[in-house]
Amino acid sequence: MKPSERLIAFMPWAGASALLALIVHIVSVLLTPVIAPRAALARLKAVEVVQGLSDKGVLLLPQPAPGEQALPFEDPTVALGACFFDLDRGVLRLRAVVDGDDFFGVSLHQPSGVVFQAVNDRAASGGAIEIVVGDARQIDELEAQDVEGAEKREVRVTAPSRRGFALIRAFAKRPSEYASAQALVAAARCETAQP
Amino acid sequence: MTRVIAWRRLGSVARLRDPFDRYLRAAAAMLAGLLLGFLLTVATLRGGYGFGEYVAGPWSAWPQLGDADTDPYARAALAQRGVAPLARSEGLAFVAQTDSSGAALDGGCEYLLSGPVPPTRFWSLALSDAAGAPLANATQRYAFTSSEILRREGGAFEIAISREARAGNWLSPGEARGFVIVLRLYDVGFDAAERIGAERFPRIVKLGCS
Q: Domain A40-193, CATH 3.40.50.720 — does that match?
């Protein structure tokens, strides 16, 4: 066989390899968020197993320190809490009082960690952040119960996944204010309710 | 026996007369494809968070991480690292892996961080390892915030990053060999789509190495 013939004989196999590589690459990238064993929700659930939720349904996370962090790349100056939702058990109702001038935010995440909604203290109405997370049907049910003309205080969010979590972040301007930021997070209430 | 011969033939790019040759080639092509595909995935997830990186001097951020419509690479990278990013309305996190000259940050060197911070309500500046964990050090200080930092007249500030104690604002990487600097902006006062330039971000200058 001449070298050129060998090359031609080799081409279809190389093409098949490249095509398969592309398929494997695409499938593995798309599957990673679903099957990654140490994604954000799994890490938070592991902390919950150890310390449990507060009586208000909030997982109070330790201040990020060496060897003591629930999630990577969290800010050591921010007090952090988490709430879980599982829409098969009901909607998540989250209420946090916003107090003071420092940054305070609630973000909603899919199990992979991807954010789908967030509210911060500047957008809070009446000194509190109130969020209801549900699926399309649950949110519709809530809307059907609304009294005509009544003021709606809560932010209603349709979740893109059945399960997920909310992160509550309170910024502490100084180390001495960290405890009060933690108290602000601990004052938040999360409950699973039927719409 | 035929197997042995077939293996030898594969090694010397055999002719395709024997059906075994075809099977072996197909198997080799499949293995190569699988391996290549996984390597490609590992390589793309290692670098960053997919497309849309915002680079300003040594600082880089992925503004699209704060949105619901992130690309599949960003989703995979988030899940694989276990990160829950700041939402767009909360803030934006910039990470520096190098100093302003482009050299990797080295725990044995001393750096001076100075200059402006982009307009924002609050910011914090922290050292961490490449995986996002704070660095153990004797001072147990892992970050500075915009409110507590000591400033000169006019509001300018400097942060010394060094293993040895320094006067003023000082962060220690402890015994870590390499580290990254994370600048988190809360309630960002500019549109990330504007991509304001490196001159609006702190400079990181290496002063010397021990």
A: no
* More confident of the two residues A99 and A187: A187
Measured distance CA(B143)–CA(B172) in Å, rounded: 10
Q: Does A25 touch chain B (CB under 8 A)?
A: yes
Chain A residues inside the 8 Å CB shell of B73:
29
Low-confidence ranges of chain B (pLDDT < 70): 1-17
pLDDT at B31: 94
Which of A43, A107, A173 is nearest residue B87 as measured by Cβ atoms?
Answer: A107
Q: How is chain A split into domains, by residue range?
A: 40-193
Residues of A in Cβ contact (< 8 Å) with B176: none
pLDDT at residue A149 is higher than 80: no
pLDDT at position A148 is 72
ipTM metric: 0.89
C-alpha Rg value of chain A to the nearest Å: 23
Enter the tokens of residue B81.
């690292």
pLDDT at residue A154 is higher than 90: no
Q: Do A112 and B41 touch (CB under 8 A)?
A: no
